[in-house]
Specification:
The complex is a heterodimer of chains A (about 110) and B (about 110).
Chain A: E1 4-7, E2 10-13, E3 19-25, E4 31-37, E5 43-51, E6 54-57, E7 64-66, E8 76-78, E9 87-94, E10 103-104, E11 108-112
Parallel strand pairs in A: 2-11
Antiparallel strand pairs in A: 1-3, 3-8, 4-5, 4-9, 5-6, 7-8, 9-10, 9-11
Chain B: E1 4-7, E2 10-14, E3 19-25, E4 31-37, E5 44-49, E6 55-58, E7 61-65, E8 71-76, E9 85-92, E10 98-100, E11 104-109
Parallel strand pairs in B: 2-11
Antiparallel strand pairs in B: 1-3, 3-8, 4-5, 4-9, 6-7, 7-8, 9-10, 9-11
The chains are: A mainly beta (about 110), B mainly beta (about 110).
């Protein structure tokens, strides 16, 4: 199993551009989530999904959209990038809920100029 | 909303010394998880505590969950250079809200 994979590893955007961060898992996990990690602030939950077709907002959802059309994939869309979205983004998955072991992807480092 | 505070922010120790990081929640937690993140890496799950007063050990690591389920600690005995990284706690409330602490960055001098 590849576990949780994320692409790209690194991305530079200009303010106002849009892009999609990809996340996929091959463990048949129901629960998937997106976090952003900023220095000194730990990880903050952006959006999560408890299964295909079901998504919900986390702590910091503004400026981001998600969808979950399949169990495997959970893309994160930045609608109009802003410098405040410069961060490292991690996708995670777990069997059913985030009260179980979460497996994190390698992360995407995003720089918005 | 639920807040999770973690201290200290940084800890530098000599190899062989002990290390402890503390996690405190503003609200009672359903459970708490601990993760380790190596420099440049991603968080890796270490353990989950669920019961009030629970204590779990993994080799040199000891995890505790407070009686009131509002605080937790991670203690490493006789640190090694392989322990270097940032340790995060993540508290799960009773309404599916999870909050990560800011983490404690541990450096170990050989």
């Amino acid at each position: 199993n590849a576990g949780v994979t994320q692409t790209p590893k690194f991305q530079v955007l200009k303010t106002g551009q849009s892009m999609t961060l990809q996340c996929a898992q091959d463990m048949n996990h129901e629960y998937m989530s997106w976090y952003r990690q900023d220095p000194g602030m730990g990880l903050r939950l952006i959006h999560y999904s408890v299964g295909a077709g079901i998504t919900d907002q986390g702590e910091v959802p503004n400026g981001y959209n998600v969808s979950r059309s399949t169990t495997e994939d959970f893309p994160l869309r930045l609608l109009s990038a802003a410098p405040s979205q410069t961060s490292v983004y991690f996708c995670a998955s777990s069997t059913r809920t985030h009260s179980e072991t979460q497996y994190f992807g390698p992360g995407t480092r995003l720089l918005v100029l | 909303g639920q807040q999770v505070m973690q201290i200290p922010q940084y800890q530098h120790v000599q190899e062989g010394e002990d290390f402890t990081t503390y996690c405190n929640s503003s609200t009672t937690l359903s459970n708490i998880q601990w993760y380790k993140q190596r420099p440049g890496g991603h968080p890796v799950f270490l353990i989950q505590l669920v019961k009030s007063g629970e204590v779990k050990k993994q080799k040199r690591l000891t995890f505790q969950f407070g009686e009131a389920k509002k605080n937790s600690s991670l203690h490493i005995t006789a640190t090694q250079t392989t322990d270097v990284g940032t340790y995060f706690c993540a508290g799960l409330g009773f309404y599916y809200d999870m909050r990560f602490g800011a983490g404690t960055r541990l450096t170990v001098k050989p």
